[in-house]
């Protein structure tokens, strides 16, 4: 695995280029500001009546329509939500992709599954901070950065990797380290992580634990604290010190009980399900399902959102978070 740091990289491939950041949300704002503060020539492409327009102007950017930005730029870095990228690309960007330009992303989804097919002669790269936008900006302002990924799907000019690394450096990512990977690896591991572990696995584990306690007659407030609220403390320990460090810091009773019981909760059946989930990501079944869901107005997602919001875990949590001053109305 190749990791690039500040001393391995320079801005030569990007310093004379115009970089259009399309979108000014979580990633767009952070990446555009960092690159501008590093001296790169950044323009921001947005829809004129959207909420971001004034925000980007107030931050000191040169703001224009997506079409104008795509026409002017050498590098078009697409940082709008993944599910609208193909439509915006086809209607507002594609026609300006002349030979020698570079198309950039922070997630490989649309390129990997073929929703966006760039023309011949155009570089396709990824510069992906491994962190939410707010952290990308905050750490940069503190003089450091978050780790990131770079990938090259198509190198038509011979310096596509240098362009990606130049942008990564300007965003502060090479200060923490940038890993070179592929669009396929980034897309598939990212989807798997969020589905099986980070977003899907963890929420269902919390709900199952909460429901078990409540069904056995314990107070929902107690159940919430024990199965949800305290998760943050454990995750912080794992994040800072690894599994062994976490085991060291919890009580011996917690360590013995946890290690001796955990495989009854997550077991062979769960691993089999994880393998199926990964297969659906690899063979495109998940992407097709999500595309159909979007085309049909997201009926399943909307219903699942409503059901989850109504769950006792959520109503209990809302009350408790307000009580602890963690959440306002
Ligand atoms: P956001 O949801 O924050 O993007 C919002 C921006 O997109 C706004 O400027 C909005 O403009 C614009 N936008 C939304 N819909 C449209 C549309 N139909 N046409 C034109 N502009 C539109 O996106 P993220 O920053 O979360 O994600 C951007 C990319 O970064 C994605 O590929 C994502 O996978 C990737 N990524 C995200 C991470 C994160 O932490 N969020 C982490 C790593 C990668 P307006 O104000 O006009 O509505
Ligand atoms: Mg991810």
From TrEMBL:
<feature type="binding site">
    <location>
        <position position="194"/>
    </location>
    <ligand>
        <name>Mg(2+) 1</name>
    </ligand>
</feature>
<dbReference type="InterPro" id="IPR036291">
    <property type="entry name" value="NAD(P)-bd_dom_sf"/>
</dbReference>
<feature type="binding site">
    <location>
        <begin position="24"/>
        <end position="27"/>
    </location>
    <ligand>
        <name>NADP(+)</name>
    </ligand>
</feature>
<dbReference type="GO" id="GO:0016853">
    <property type="term" value="F:isomerase activity"/>
</dbReference>
<feature type="binding site">
    <location>
        <position position="251"/>
    </location>
    <ligand>
        <name>substrate</name>
    </ligand>
</feature>
<comment type="pathway">
    <text>Amino-acid biosynthesis; L-valine biosynthesis; L-valine from pyruvate: step 2/4.</text>
</comment>
<dbReference type="GO" id="GO:0000287">
    <property type="term" value="F:magnesium ion binding"/>
</dbReference>
<feature type="binding site">
    <location>
        <position position="190"/>
    </location>
    <ligand>
        <name>Mg(2+) 2</name>
    </ligand>
</feature>
<feature type="domain" description="KARI N-terminal Rossmann">
    <location>
        <begin position="1"/>
        <end position="181"/>
    </location>
</feature>
<dbReference type="GO" id="GO:0050661">
    <property type="term" value="F:NADP binding"/>
</dbReference>
<dbReference type="InterPro" id="IPR013023">
    <property type="entry name" value="KARI"/>
</dbReference>
<dbReference type="InterPro" id="IPR014359">
    <property type="entry name" value="KARI_prok"/>
</dbReference>
<feature type="binding site">
    <location>
        <position position="230"/>
    </location>
    <ligand>
        <name>Mg(2+) 2</name>
    </ligand>
</feature>
<feature type="binding site">
    <location>
        <position position="190"/>
    </location>
    <ligand>
        <name>Mg(2+) 1</name>
    </ligand>
</feature>
<comment type="pathway">
    <text>Amino-acid biosynthesis; L-isoleucine biosynthesis; L-isoleucine from 2-oxobutanoate: step 2/4.</text>
</comment>
<comment type="function">
    <text>Involved in the biosynthesis of branched-chain amino acids (BCAA). Catalyzes an alkyl-migration followed by a ketol-acid reduction of (S)-2-acetolactate (S2AL) to yield (R)-2,3-dihydroxy-isovalerate. In the isomerase reaction, S2AL is rearranged via a Mg-dependent methyl migration to produce 3-hydroxy-3-methyl-2-ketobutyrate (HMKB). In the reductase reaction, this 2-ketoacid undergoes a metal-dependent reduction by NADPH to yield (R)-2,3-dihydroxy-isovalerate.</text>
</comment>
<dbReference type="Pfam" id="PF07991">
    <property type="entry name" value="KARI_N"/>
</dbReference>
<feature type="binding site">
    <location>
        <position position="226"/>
    </location>
    <ligand>
        <name>Mg(2+) 2</name>
    </ligand>
</feature>
<feature type="binding site">
    <location>
        <position position="47"/>
    </location>
    <ligand>
        <name>NADP(+)</name>
    </ligand>
</feature>
<feature type="domain" description="KARI C-terminal knotted">
    <location>
        <begin position="182"/>
        <end position="327"/>
    </location>
</feature>
<comment type="similarity">
    <text>Belongs to the ketol-acid reductoisomerase family.</text>
</comment>
<keyword id="KW-0460">Magnesium</keyword>
<dbReference type="InterPro" id="IPR008927">
    <property type="entry name" value="6-PGluconate_DH-like_C_sf"/>
</dbReference>
<keyword id="KW-0479">Metal-binding</keyword>
<dbReference type="GO" id="GO:0009097">
    <property type="term" value="P:isoleucine biosynthetic process"/>
</dbReference>
<keyword id="KW-0028">Amino-acid biosynthesis</keyword>
<protein>
    <recommendedName>
        <fullName>Ketol-acid reductoisomerase (NADP(+))</fullName>
        <ecNumber>1.1.1.86</ecNumber>
    </recommendedName>
</protein>
<dbReference type="GO" id="GO:0009099">
    <property type="term" value="P:L-valine biosynthetic process"/>
</dbReference>
<keyword id="KW-0521">NADP</keyword>
<dbReference type="GO" id="GO:0004455">
    <property type="term" value="F:ketol-acid reductoisomerase activity"/>
</dbReference>
<feature type="active site">
    <location>
        <position position="107"/>
    </location>
</feature>
<feature type="binding site">
    <location>
        <position position="133"/>
    </location>
    <ligand>
        <name>NADP(+)</name>
    </ligand>
</feature>
<dbReference type="InterPro" id="IPR000506">
    <property type="entry name" value="KARI_C"/>
</dbReference>
<dbReference type="InterPro" id="IPR013116">
    <property type="entry name" value="KARI_N"/>
</dbReference>
<dbReference type="Pfam" id="PF01450">
    <property type="entry name" value="KARI_C"/>
</dbReference>
<keyword id="KW-0100">Branched-chain amino acid biosynthesis</keyword>
<keyword id="KW-0560">Oxidoreductase</keyword>
<feature type="binding site">
    <location>
        <position position="52"/>
    </location>
    <ligand>
        <name>NADP(+)</name>
    </ligand>
</feature>
């Amino acid at each position: 695995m190749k990791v690039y740091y500040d001393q391995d990289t320079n801005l030569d491939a990007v310093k004379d280029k115009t970089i259009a950041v399309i979108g000014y949300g979580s990633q767009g704002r952070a990446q555009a500001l960092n690159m501008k503060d590093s001296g790169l020539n950044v323009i921001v492409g947005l829809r004129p009546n959207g909420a971001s327009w004034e925000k980007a102007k107030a931050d000191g950017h040169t703001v224009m329509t997506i079409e104008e930005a795509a026409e002017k730029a050498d590098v078009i870095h697409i940082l709008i939500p993944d599910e609208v990228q193909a439509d915006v690309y086809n209607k507002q960007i594609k026609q300006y992709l002349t030979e020698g330009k570079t198309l950039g992303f922070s997630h490989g989804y649309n390129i990997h599954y073929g929703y966006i097919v760039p023309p011949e002669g155009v570089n396709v790269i990824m510069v992906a901070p491994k962190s939410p936008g707010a952290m990308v900006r905050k750490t940069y302002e503190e003089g450091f950065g978050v780790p990131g990924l770079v990938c090259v799907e198509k190198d038509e000019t011979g310096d596509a990797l240098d362009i990606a690394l130049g942008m990564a450096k300007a965003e502060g990512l090479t200060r923490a380290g940038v890993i070179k990977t592929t669009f396929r690896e980034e897309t598939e591991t990212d989807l798997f992580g969020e589905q099986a572990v980070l977003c899907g696995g963890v929420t269902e584990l919390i709900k199952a634990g909460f429901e078990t306690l409540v069904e056995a007659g314990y107070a929902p407030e107690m159940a919430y604290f024990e199965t949800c609220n305290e998760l943050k403390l454990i995750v912080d320990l794992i994040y800072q010190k690894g599994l062994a460090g976490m085991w060291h810091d919890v009580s011996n009773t917690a360590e013995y009980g946890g290690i001796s019981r955990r495989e009854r909760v997550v077991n062979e059946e769960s691993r089999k399900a994880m393998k199926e989930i990964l297969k659906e990501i690899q063979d495109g079944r998940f992407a097709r399902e999500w595309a159909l869901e979007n085309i049909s107005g997201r009926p399943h997602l909307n219903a699942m959102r409503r059901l989850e919001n109504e769950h006792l875990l959520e109503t209990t949590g809302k009350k408790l978070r307000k009580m602890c001053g963690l959440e306002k109305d």
